[in-house]
Amino acid sequence: MKKITALWIFLGFLTANLFAWELPGYGNLHFERMGKSNVWIMHGPPEEPSVKNRGFMNNPAFVESEHGLIVIDPGGNYKVGRKILGEMEKVSRKPVIAIFNTHKHGDHWFANRAIAEKYPKAPIYAHPNMIKEVKAGEAEKWYGILDRLSHNLDGTKPFRYPDHELNDGQKITIDGQHFVIHHPKKAHTDTDILIEHKESNTLFLGDNVMKNRLGGFDSSSSILGNIELLEGIMKNGNYALYVPGHGPSGGKEETVGPFLRYLKVLKKWAQKAYDNDEDYYAYKKEAIKELGPIAKWDAFDHQMGKHLNKVYMEIEEKDMQ
After folding, report:
1. Alpha carbons 213 and 211: distance in angstroms, whole number
2. Are 113 and 161 in contact (CB under 8 A)?
3. pLDDT digit string, tens, across residues 232-268
4. Contact, 127 vs 133, CB < 8 A?
5. Is 225 helix (H, G, I), strand (E, B) or coil?
6. Which of 1, 100, 225, 319 is most solvent-facing, going by the fewest CB within 10 Å?
7. How far is CA 140 from CA 72, 73, 78, 106, 147, in A?
């Protein structure tokens, strides 16, 4: 009997691995349960979208409720979404009953279509600013970016836009799971929501926090606003788990702390340059030296200078008001 049981266990393991999503260079990708909670996360490669990673580099997650799955940021294209859906079904055969999109950037929500194709009645929630902006051209802009970098967006169009609005402070209950929505006026973008899941004491941060990689700040972003948001998070509350948009999840200090430090170092040296009536790049080397190991994060070499320039311009604009 023991031999038969062992054989079945081995065959189950073999079958699961035969059909696992193997991304060359990254191994088998799968969802990981966060402790004993009902939160599951697949941590994508913390790097820029590329042909190698097929445009998958965010952190898709889901909350398992009694009757279904509630998905947060399913990924960056249709093909990735199909793979992610397959990995979800290995964890649970329950249907997807809702989707949250944290902000407008396509690497987080283009996989909506793959999920909605199988579960068309599942509502997709986002901030009204996101819904407005993606329909006004942001989706097409990001399609161009991700298609050029990953060459993996076949099937992503037509876009499956979010269709239910969520506003700051709103409380929403889905199949017995309780969520609170937080919308910073302007941080990573002006379309973001942070999602607090009460049952697991988890805070989904979106791209307001990244770890081990750097992304861009566009005209809808505010580095000063991002700093203010993260300082508030560091001072108030203590969640069991903090989930960034990119990079590993964990406790407050290890997850939120490094990105906040990065932004504050940029602000410090940009402020010094502004006060001394010098160009922002005059202190770039000093800022890099102070940042230490953060300088090894993915995309640092071509993002850090842009970020330093942006915060310099924000300081200047604030002074002119």
Report:
1. 5
2. no
3. 999 998 999 999 999 999 999 999 999 999 999 999 9
4. no
5. helix
6. 1
7. 21, 18, 15, 9, 10
- Indicate the CATH number of 31-256 among 1.10.460.10, 3.60.15.30, 3.30.1310.20, 3.90.550.10: 3.60.15.30
167 CB neighbour count, 10 Å cutoff: 11
Q: Give the type of residue at 110.
A: F
Q: Cα–Cα distance between 250 and 216 in angstroms, integer? A: 23
Measured CA to CA, the distance from residue 270 to residue 37 in angstroms comes to: 42
Q: 270: which residues sit within 8 A by CB, 6+ positions away?
A: 280, 283, 308, 311, 312, 315
| pLDDT 10s digits, 206-241 | 999 999 999 999 999 999 999 999 999 999 989 999
CB proximity list for 128: less than 8 A, separation 6 or greater: 165, 167
Counting every residue written for the chain, the total comes to: 321
Phi-psi map region of 247: left, alpha, beta (phi>0 left; psi -120 to 50 alpha)? left
Q: Please say whether the beta carbons of 110 and 142 come within 8 A.
A: yes
Which residue type is seen at 166?
Answer: L
Between β-strands 177-182 and 194-197, what pairing exists: parallel, antiparallel or unpaired?
antiparallel
